[in-house]
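Predict structure. Input: Cytochrome c, 179 residues.
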Amino acid sequence: MKALYKIALLVSVSAAFTSCFDKREPNYQYMPNMYEPVAYEPYSEASAFPNGKEGQLPAEGSIPRGFTPYELPDNNEGYEASKTNLSPIADENYDEARAGELYTVYCAICHGDKGDGKGNLVKREKFLGVPNYKDRQITVGSVYHVETYGINMMGSYANQLSQEERWQVAHYVMQLRSK
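Output follows.
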């Protein structure tokens, strides 16, 4: 009789384990949310944030770490004031090779390799009136100001170059001007 109970128990346990298995359909998942996460749209409203509409915004008046604000405004008065600006880069931190590479990538296409205003786009007459650096009253600060905000047809390079890179290029422009 005991053997009959053991056989019945073995059959019922094996039936319980095999009854949930079906090769045609997926098995049960222990925690389905871990396997199938909820997809959120990046710009949709979400209840996870306090205002319910958008993500966390930085505190008002805060600035990113390592960023130095440029206080001069984007107008003619700011440009004239920038001419008295001195570079925060010391002469021993100036990397002429790197500044030359940056100038070649971002500036030489219009201003030319020598700063004479005869870059490839000017030669092909895509842009006209690109000034020669020697003909302008510029300083390191005014070049940085123009790189930051842009002037006339030249747009801003603040998104392409970091602050330190813009100062490097400004030094390089002054070096081209003196040659």
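The mean pLDDT is 83.
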